[in-house]
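User: I'm putting together notes for a lab meeting next week and I want to include a structural view of one of the chains we've been expressing. I don't have a solved structure, so I'd like a prediction I can at least talk through. The sequence is below, exactly as it appears in our construct file.
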Amino acid sequence: MLREMSGGGPVSATSALGTIRTLSRLAFYAEQFGYRYASVHEVNRKFQILVVPDPDPRALARAAHNWTWYPDAADGGALPPLDADAVAVLKARMSFELATRFTEKQMIGITVFGFTGLAVGPWIKFGLVVGGPLWVAFMALVAVLLVANRRYRAKHSAVLESAGFTAVTDPDGRPRYLPPAADRRD
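Assistant: Thanks for the context. Below is the predicted structure for the 186-residue chain, given as structure tokens.
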């Protein structure tokens, strides 16, 4: 990834393990070498991040310093020490973005449609006696999943808010967090 960053354009990376933890570390190191985290997406059941060049003078100075101290970083050499707090904030940003890919109404619709589809098979094969209770159980599970998702988002929201991020709603109605005012580059 560091080799691709030398071109100066946006770089996307997919973790071989596909974990948010791994990608948050990659984003941390990208930020140490003149880039900033932009977004995360799911591609082919793996998570992919996008990092873009950071024109901020502080980021450029940090990158120059780190390229001087770690010249072999792009070739698998030593890297700057990992800052656990910065990685935790990046992990919270990525997790929150993935948890809010869909609005709550969209999630409910997708889940109800999917669970209804799962209940149709047993209903056709065994009748309403089996299909009906199965469908009712699935609909109860929709509420449980909704509550679990809200708690998951709240946990990551707390981390982001304590780091100074600001909650906003994008034009599609999904919640997002903007970096602290000092770090915003809109």
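A couple of points you could mention at the meeting. The helical segments are 2-5, 20-32, 57-69, 84-99, 104-126, 128-162. The CA atoms of residues 138 and 144 lie 10 Å apart.

User: Perfect, that's what I needed.
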